[in-house]
Write a structure and sequence with these properties.
This protein is of the alpha/beta class. The chain is built from 18 helices and 15 strands. The strands form 4 sheets. A 6-stranded mixed sheet has the order 1-6-5-2-3-4, sandwiched between helices. Helix 3 links the parallel strand 2 and strand 3. Helix 12 packs antiparallel against helix 15, helix 13 crosses helix 15 and helix 17 packs across helix 18.
Length: 439
């Protein structure tokens, strides 16, 4: 089995490592334990968290033991670079984060574990999910300053990028946030001592915090630990990964439906298909490299496989097949040649699953016999907030019936518009659909 660091490099996960040669030699000696911290300040992770999640999953698939560390303690004060919390990392933020209660953080942590379990096997000690509140909330302030704080230089800490941003901001850096680097370093020391965890991984903004933990372990234990950071992933168009007009793309199906999740990946920029297959699926490297020269319909087929595999990981096979069938019902079936990513379980033939993912409603047959003005039907289907909004949608050319643009707001939609499946497909803009069925 290849060295996991080589695998992560080949797939595009690594931006920086510490002690690169020593890390390779350490991993070659046998299975190791590594960790990544996850912010519990929301009840769901989003696509922006997939790089760390997938990296832990790759580590486990290569025989290593991952630790997903929930920041229940540091969340109580907040990472200055994250969202809200009990303490908070200052990095990436120019304002202080909102505080959360321990109860909210504990509830959020349950949601995160459910999502992480889609990617990582926590059974029988194969992976651990820990909460740093278990040790941070028990620390004595004076003893902590004496034993741990004395190893940190304030001069060095304020030079960290995460602190510099806040120091230059109007609000400044609070003392509670300034402690974040020390606490994260202590997390690494705790995991080193209790679980022989020698490798911390994280986003590029965490480099300073990771190095501080490595240095603390060296000072207190005279041992070498390692760090690895991931690049910031953006699309080729320059947009932040996982951002849409509607906001973040969440892993929680209640926040982003499996169908919407599937469609996010289907709409991947042509320039990103190979890179995203490498990062967000477990398909073999050699198969992915073979699609780099694809164009046109074949490249769109690769996007469909990307969407299927990414949704399969996040939501399971049943929901993925429903999303796939929904896409077929609106855009037609995509017959993907067997030589395109053959290891994928993408359905190469028909699907037995009914479409339940696209919003749909029923209209009485007698109403369709008479005909319904288009603007009223779009409003009733929820594709416009009011009759007036529906009129404007149609006048601006954004309303479609069965793929054909609606010309006039009062065009009558009737039984003549039912397709062979006894369905009328409404579309608002590029991506919002609704099915009308007769009864």
């Amino acid at each position: 089995m290849p060295n996991i660091i080589d695998v992560l490099k080949q797939r595009g996960f690594i931006e920086q490592t510490t002690h690169e040669q020593e890390l390779d030699e350490y991993i070659d000696q046998g299975n190791i334990t590594c960790y990544i911290g996850f912010d519990p300040t929301a009840s769901s992770l989003h696509i922006g968290s997939l790089i760390p999640i997938m990296s832990l999953a790759h580590m486990q698939r290569h025989g290593h033991r991952p630790i997903a560390l929930i920041g229940g303690g540091t969340g109580l004060i907040g990472d200055p670079g994250g969202g809200t919390g009990l303490i908070g990392d200052p990095s990436g933020k120019t304002e202080m984060r909102k505080m959360l209660t321990a109860e909210i953080i504990a509830e959020n942590a349950l949601g995160l574990k459910k999502q992480l379990s889609r990617y990582i096997d926590f059974s029988d000690g194969k992976a651990l999910m820990l909460n740093n509140a278990d040790w941070l909330t028990k620390l004595g302030y004076i003893s902590f300053l004496r034993d741990i704080g004395r190893h940190f230089s304030v001069n060095r800490m304020i030079k960290a990028e995460s602190c510099k941003m806040r120091l230059d901001s109007e609000e400044g850096l609070s003392f509670i946030e300034f402690n974040y680097m020390v606490l994260q370093a202590y997390d690494f020391l705790e995991l080193f001592n209790s679980h022989d965890c020698r490798l911390q991984m994280g986003g590029s903004d965490q480099w300073g915090n990771i190095v501080s933990g490595i240095e603390l372990i060296r000072r207190m234990n005279q041992k070498t630990a390692f760090g690895l950071t991931f690049p910031l992933i953006s699309t080729s168009s320059g947009e932040k990964m996982g951002k849409t007009a509607k906001g973040a793309v969440w892993l929680d199906p209640a926040k982003t439906s499996p169908y919407e999740y599937y469609q996010y990946w289907i709409n991947t920029d042509d320039r990103d298909v190979t890179r995203f297959l490498l990062l967000f699926t477990f398909l073999p490297l050699d198969e992915i490299r073979q699609i780099e020269q694809l164009q046109g319909a074949d490249l769109n087929s690769a996007k469909a496989v990307l969407a299927f595999e990414a949704t399969l990981l996040a939501h399971g096979r049943d929901e993925t097949l429903k999303a796939h069938q929904a896409a077929i019902s609106m855009f037609g079936n995509r017959d993907i040649a067997g030589h395109i990513l053959p290891s994928s379980s993408f359905p190469r033939g028909g699907s037995e699953f009914d479409d339940v993912s696209v919003p749909q409603s029923y209209v009485e047959a007698e109403k369709l016999n008479t005909g319904i003005p288009a603007f009223k039907l779009f409003h009733a289907a929820g594709l416009a907030s009011s009759g007036g909004a529906a009129r404007r949608l149609i006048e601006q050319g954004g309303a479609y019936v069965n793929g054909q643009r609606v010309v006039s707001f009062d065009d009558l939609i009737s039984v003549q518009d039912l397709n062979d499946a006894n369905i009328i497909l409404l579309r608002s803009g590029k991506k919002r659909y609704h099915k009308i069925k007769s009864r």
